[in-house]
Write a structure and sequence with these properties.
alpha/beta; Rossmann fold; 2 domains; 8-stranded mixed β-sheet; 16 helices; 44% helix; globular
Length: 393
């Protein structure tokens, strides 16, 4: 029954079940997240745990739990397709390295992705982190009357020339996509400003979100924790220097090698791992699946981040949700984050928080309160709901 037929029937709107169903229907959202399957499926055998992927999986589960029809497009990791995980229907595209170099840009990459985008037939397509797919999705949505959302994942995503994209062709597609998507989402005020300055577009500020696992048991931990990919821009060597400067404190480093980082800087991961092994007060775990990383936050006293740049690291949210303060070389715009520039200064700030109970207690309380005000799932869901209502009335 169409709306026109319902109007002609003479039945009051509030008495028409079909009309109510039509009015209340929430849009079908598809997350185009090539590397997300290992995170969403919790497969411990695939060593991929990127920040953008973690955030998209959090959002996908959140949307599905709140009545949205949710799909996801991922690389082919050998999983069935479609596959249903936590209310999210996952379609596989192609294996990451399938095809003949140069020619594989067209097939299987473009041909397969385009086919799967059509197969999913969502109302809104959501893609996060700078990549050629931004341009592809924007074009697809223009042609088929869909809506496209791009979400920034790093502070460099909107800085022209600083995007983490190697090929000129892919950078061109990404920038073209930014100009054509229906909405752009920024994580923090810096991204808002750089998007407006460099791309002449206004973004919507929606912070990242996080929910504590049901089995989380944060307590009075004593570890100084570092979690991330062992990549040059993450600067794990600074964390190792903190451990060297504070031999009486217990440090834990969690992270596997970066594929891109290993290609550009061979032996980097092994050098960090071997240096860590020589420190008696530091435990180096290597790569861990997300589910195995979570309990380490329950045992943490502080989280340290040593990156050159970030957006809003998921590890900050994992820490703040437990009342674990952060000490970092990046300023993410959060007043509860203690910032340092060099290792000696960082060691002093870490020691001050560890040795002063009153100072740590206040920082812990402030971190938890800040998280609940800005990064709770309820707050972020409300912002996305308003955005989706605008895009798909």
């Amino acid at each position: 029954m169409t709306l026109a037929t319902l109007r002609q029937s003479g039945v009051p709107a509030q008495g028409r079940p079909e009309a109510v169903a039509l009015v209340r229907r929430k849009p079908h959202v598809c997350f185009v997240a090539p590397y997300a399957w290992p995170v969403l499926s919790r497969d411990p055998n695939i060593q991929v745990v990127g920040g953008a992927e973690v955030q998209q999986c959090i959002l996908a589960r959140l949307f599905a739990a709140n009545g949205y029809r949710v799909s996801m497009i991922s690389f082919d990791y050998g999983q069935p397709s479609p596959a249903l995980v936590d209310g999210v229907t996952v379609y596989k595209s192609f294996r990451e390295r399938a095809g003949i170099p140069v020619f594989r840009f067209l097939h299987p990459r473009l041909t397969t992705m385009w086919r799967v985008l059509r197969e999913v037939d969502a109302d809104v397509y959501y893609q996060r982190s700078s990549a050629m797919w931004t341009g592809v999705i924007a074009e697809f949505c223009r042609r088929y009357g869909k809506r496209a959302i791009y979400a920034g994942a790093s502070d460099r995503d909107f800085d022209i020339g600083q995007e983490q994209i190697v090929l000129f062709r892919d950078r061109w597609l990404y920038r073209r996509g930014l100009a054509r998507v229906d909405r752009i989402i920024a994580q923090n005020p810096y991204q808002l400003e750089s998007c407006r300055r460099n791309h002449k577009r206004d973004a919507v500020l929606i912070p990242s979100c996080y929910e504590l696992p049901k089995d989380a048991k944060p307590g009075n931990g004593d570890r100084v924790l570092w979690v991330g990919t062992i990549h040059g821009y993450k600067r794990p060597e600074i964390f190792l220097e903190l451990a060297e400067r504070l031999p009486e404190r217990r440090f834990v480093m969690i992270g596997g090698p970066s594929i891109g980082g290993e290609r550009l800087k061979p032996g980097y991961y092994e050098a960090i791992r071997d240096r860590a092994a020589r420190l008696p007060n530091l435990e180096f775990t290597g790569f861990l699946p997300l589910a195995e990383v979570e309990p380490w936050f329950d045992r943490a006293r502080l989280l340290v981040n040593t990156s050159v740049y970030e957006g809003m690291p998921n590890v900050f949210l994992q820490a703040w949700a437990r009342g674990v303060p952060t000490v970092a070389t990046v300023d993410v715009g959060a007043p509860v984050n203690t910032v340092f520039a060099q290792a000696p200064q960082g060691a002093a700030k870490v020691e001050a928080l560890l040795s002063n109970t009153a100072l740590w207690t206040q920082a812990s309380s402030d971190s938890l309160a800040y998280f609940e005000r800005n990064h709770s799932s309820a707050e972020v869901l409300a912002r996305y709901a308003r955005l989706l209502d605008e895009l798909v009335p």
